[in-house]
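Module 6 notes. Inverse folding takes a fixed backbone as the condition and produces residue identities as the prediction. Think of it as a translation problem where the source language is geometry and the target language is the twenty amino acids. Below is one complete input and output pair. Work through it position by position during the lab.
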């Protein structure tokens, strides 16, 4: 046997027991989204390449280096989605959602794709759960978005995660700030890394985000966005802060936090493990994008959202205990297997997980399998059981055995399990 095929580099199989973490995170996230009254939206994994080029920005790492973009057989340039917000904004515009009700609270869960360097342990297919609130610039929407992220994190019992936030201004106040930042960066240009020298021209705020020691030092006294906000932006930021303070949601202001994507305005935030001081591994990242819908050809629609990295969250939680089946059936002939299927149907109807043994030749090997699966109870059906309408019920933990009439089985299972 040769293993002729293998998964593509950076594209992982996720299976048991690891899958239990993913299921747990997704179900907690879904429950929290539901409790905050967010509705699910599912968008395709493929979009026109231009959607991301315009929204994320051509001078970002994602669009420059990391997108899976190709021409299909019809000559159309398509990209596997590298993130969830642009597709959801496209959906909002395409279906004229603002005509029904401009205010929408949406969530999504699904795979994203970036052509990252796998040697750094990065995945090329990864998974995110995210939310977007469209149609309001009320800072309370920012508070609620951050509260929702905080609720999911604490529901997953992930501790020592801290929130950082910043305001990166708006089209009114940002141009003057960028001018000042550019001239500052010009004065320290020699001390910046090669990437940052380029960024200083194309996307200067990204320089503040660089994790390299030299760049951190060179930009230690760079102008800060929060000192250059217009009245509306600083009012918005203080509205957000007083909301968080009132709810006692801890956070720190981090003026280096700019987020990598072009479409953000005003609020940007991240949740990252506290020990990860430069937040290389944010588990939740989000912000306000008041001009994205407009930029994509829709009506002016202020909005805010976040995305949570499911793999990153999975790295922070313990694997949930996976329970074995409540009942494992051991039928000793093909006739008794028919009876097992019928009785399993009755028990499944009462919510008991059942598996029926087959393939194993002997009663001993079937009992071994029941043990390996962690079954609570075993039901043996042999010749006599078949003829006289009963089963032999055995508790795996202590070997207790009971003869139970078919009709009494659901009750007996309930009694034996407890
Ligand atoms: Zn402003
Ligand atoms: Zn740098």
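Target side of the pair, the amino acids:
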């Amino acid at each position: 046997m040769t293993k002729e095929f293998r998964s593509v580099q950076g594209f992982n199989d996720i299976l048991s027991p690891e899958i239990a973490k993913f299921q747990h995170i997704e179900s907690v996230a879904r429950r929290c989204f539901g409790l905050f009254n967010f509705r699910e939206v599912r968008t395709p994994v493929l979009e026109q390449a231009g959607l991301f080029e315009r929204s994320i920005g051509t001078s970002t790492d994602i669009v420059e280096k990391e997108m899976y973009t190709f021409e299909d057989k019809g000559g159309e340039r398509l990209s596997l989605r590298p993130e969830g917000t642009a597709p959801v904004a496209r959906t909002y515009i395409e279906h004229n959602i603002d005509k029904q009700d401009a205010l929408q609270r949406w969530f999504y869960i699904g795979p994203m794709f970036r052509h990252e360097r796998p040697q750094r342990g990065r995945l090329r297919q990864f998974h995110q759960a995210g939310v977007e609130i469209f149609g309001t610039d009320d800072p309370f929407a920012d508070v609620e978005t951050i509260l929702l992220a905080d609720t999911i994190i604490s529901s997953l019992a992930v501790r020592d995660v801290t929130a950082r936030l910043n305001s990166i201004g708006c089209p009114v106040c940002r141009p003057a700030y960028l001018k000042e930042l550019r001239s500052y960066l010009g004065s320290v240009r020699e001390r910046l890394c090669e990437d940052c020298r380029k960024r200083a021209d194309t996307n200067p705020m990204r320089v503040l985000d660089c994790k390299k020691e030299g760049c951190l030092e060179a930009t230690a006294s760079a102008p800060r966005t929060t000192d250059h906000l217009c009245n509306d932006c600083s009012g918005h930021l203080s509205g957000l802060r007083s909301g968080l303070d009132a709810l006692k949601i801890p956070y720190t202001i981090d003026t280096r936090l700019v987020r990598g994507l072009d479409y953000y305005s005003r609020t940007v935030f991240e949740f990252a493990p506290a020990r990860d001081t430069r937040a290389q591994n944010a588990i939740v990242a989000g912000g306000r994008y008041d001009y994205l819908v407009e930029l994509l050809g829709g009506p002016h629609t202020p909005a805010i959202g976040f995305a949570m990295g499911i793999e990153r969250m999975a790295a922070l939680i313990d694997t949930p205990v996976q329970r074995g089946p409540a009942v494992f059936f051991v039928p000793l002939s093909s006739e008794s297997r028919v009876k097992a299927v019928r009785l399993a149907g009755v028990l499944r109807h009462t919510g008991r997980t059942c598996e029926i043994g087959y393939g194993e030749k002997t009663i001993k090997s079937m009992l071994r399998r029941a043990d390996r699966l962690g079954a609570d109870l075993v039901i043996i059906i042999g010749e006599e059981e078949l003829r006289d309408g009963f089963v032999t019920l055995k508790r795996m933990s202590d070997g207790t055995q009971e003869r139970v009439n078919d009709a009494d089985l659901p009750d007996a299972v309930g009694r034996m399990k407890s």
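Reference fact for the lab report: The chain has two domains: 18-173+229-314, 327-417.
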